[in-house]
Design brief:
The protein is an alpha+beta fold. The chain has one domain. 27% of the residues lie in helices and 27% in strands. It contains 4 helices and 6 strands; from the N terminus they run βαααβββαββ. A hairpin with a 7-residue loop joins strand 3 and strand 4. The radius of gyration is 16 Å and the shape is elongated. The termini are far apart. Bound molecules: zinc ion. The site of zinc ion has 8 residues, from loops.
Length: 132
């Protein structure tokens, strides 16, 4: 599956520090594993069928079954967001020319750890017009 980079988009927000705080809290015993390994059924389903493998290990169980899933929110999209399964779908959303925000969530398919990794706004790219 071709990958796309968040850097191709505007307004990239990283949640790396918030993620690390959660991991630190688990490691320090201030939070229990079941509190952070709580992916909801729909997120589990999407991660199982459409997750893009990451090179990182799960920060909780150290499994190498950590995947990334992307959801798009914006006008004309379902209130619960649309799962973006590949680059062509992302490009299609971009061509709509409507404000769209994407959220990428990492999910471990072994222990169901999940955390928001980054969000970004889709850049609208001008559509090349063919000559008459
Ligand atoms: Zn895990």
């Amino acid at each position: 599956m071709p990958r796309w980079r968040a850097s191709d988009n505007d307004g990239v927000v990283s949640y790396r520090l918030a993620r690390q705080r959660v991991i630190d809290a688990v490691e320090a015993g201030h939070r229990q594993q079941h509190e952070v390994c709580d992916a909801q059924p729909e997120l589990r389903r999407v991660a199982h069928h459409h997750g893009t493998p990451l090179n990182d290990d799960c920060p909780i169980c150290e499994s190498d079954d950590l995947v990334l899933v992307t959801f798009a929110f914006g006008a004309g999209l379902p209130n619960a967001g649309r799962c973006v399964t590949d680059r062509s779908e992302l490009m299609s959303l971009r061509r709509r020319g409507r404000p769209t925000t994407c959220y990428r969530v990492e999910v471990c398919r072994q222990c169901w750890w999940n955390h928001l990794r980054e969000s970004f706004l889709l850049k609208n790219r001008p559509v090349a017009k063919s000559a008459p």
